[in-house]
Amino acid sequence: MPDLDAALSDRLARGCASLGVGTQEEQGQLLTYLALMVKWNRAYNLTAVREPRQMVTRHLLDSLAVAAHLSGQRLLDVGTGGGLPGVPLSILFPEREFHLLDSNGKKTRFLFQVKTALGLDNMTVHQARVEAFDQSPFDTVLSRAFASLADMVSGCRHLLAPGGRFLAMKGAFPEAEIAAVEDCCQIQAVHPLAVPGLGEQRHLVVMTLRD
Asked: Is 79 annotated as a binding residue?
């Protein structure tokens, strides 16, 4: 449907311009990823969001909104599901190494297809439960709607390199969750995120482990 394709491209372009990210080539890759998600979602139930225009806002732009706060060379997206935010960030930062972890076989099969279709050599897909996942440590451990901050820290602390950072994407300011981890974590920042086209709160919690 050319009209829909044009509308999606325009929505993504305007959102990327607002965030200050994304070349025309990268936006093309993001739209290819979106098309794959729409196709596979019918059978694999990757996301409850099924309307493509909403997917641009709630998945692509929501993921890209954290781009300015990334650091490190080796990053882990834990509980990645259909690849959010890991796939959009892999497209945006080809010089960085992204590892996408999920225990769901259907979702990781989809991610292997995305990796192949988009030629994302900087993206590695892992199927495992986080507690059993054993890899050399990561500079950044990132999550989007994965778990509470306490569960994220307890499940992933063995995966964080010394001096590394947890980045947890949240909706409303998670005051109670922050209080629950203050004994074991140093809260470096809580950044409000402005997702173009989304009238809901988004926050990014940045944490390091206490010595």
From this structure: yes
